[in-house]
Amino acid sequence: MKIKSAEFVMSNSDVAKCPKSRLPEYAFIGRSNVGKSSLINMLTSRKSLAKTSGRPGKTQLINHFLINNNWHLVDLPGYGYARVSKSSKKVFQKFITQYFGSREQLVTAFVLVDIRHTPQPIDLEFMQWLGENGIPFSIIFTKADKLRPQAIEKHVDDYKNILLETWVEVPNYFITSSSKDIGKDDVLGYIDGLNENMNLEAN
Ligand code: GTP
Ligand code: MG
């Protein structure tokens, strides 16, 4: 898929105020600093469409972007940011839960995972929660430029093995690097395919 246009639509902390349109929506979620905003910029070939930062906790709101006037891409705040207070963690959990619980337009979530780390309980728990709530998701491994190919393979295998302890199948996954432009066509091609399926179903 070629990205012809990518526009910021709105930022929100209130799920009820998110765009009302029925355009298919794809949400990017994962731990703070995993590279969600960077990935969105890489996918759209726009340097600073989504705001990035070396400091965790940059994205605090639900950010909608309109792509090709045809679908929404959503940048969500990261979970698992240790330095936020317990009460703001609760608020945050609430709005993430509300987002996933109420956005019927959501086609799939992309859960981003830093490829350098061993499988983290917080990510596995989040995937479990999505599964229990019937929300489809794929995994996007980020920062692949930081590892050699062999290590990438090993880390992905470790992940698969741990997922197979609770899941019947390994979810779809993608290996990406925003700094080296890796994985872009795979992710965009996947979204394109899902959008086409939605059109077929609608007609
Ligand atoms: P929050 O909004 O705080 O939850 O973070 P985020 O997940 O949106 O991460 P963001 O895109 O802001 O990136 C965090 C840091 O990781 C930045 O310093 C990025 O430059 C760096 N980063 C993101 N993607 C990559 C990548 O593919 N490779 C490398 N080497 N660094 C990356
Ligand atoms: Mg961000």
Automatic annotation (TrEMBL):
Keywords, ordered alphabetically: Cell cycle, Cell division, GTP-binding, Magnesium, Metal-binding, Nucleotide-binding, Septation
Sample GO molecular function, one term: GTP binding
Required cofactor(s): Mg(2+)
CDD domains, alphabetized: YihA_EngB
Keyword tRNA processing: no
InterPro entries xrefs: G_ENGB_dom (IPR030393), GTP-bd (IPR006073), GTP-bd_ribosome_bio_YsxC (IPR019987), P-loop_NTPase (IPR027417)
One Gene Ontology term from the biological process aspect of the record: division septum assembly
Residues of the EngB-type G domain: 22-197
The organism's place on the tree of life at top rank: Bacteria
Similarity field: Belongs to the TRAFAC class TrmE-Era-EngA-EngB-Septin-like GTPase superfamily. EngB GTPase family.
Protein task: Necessary for normal cell division and for the maintenance of normal septation.
UniProt name for this protein: Probable GTP-binding protein EngB
Source species: Algibacter amylolyticus
Name of the coding gene: engB
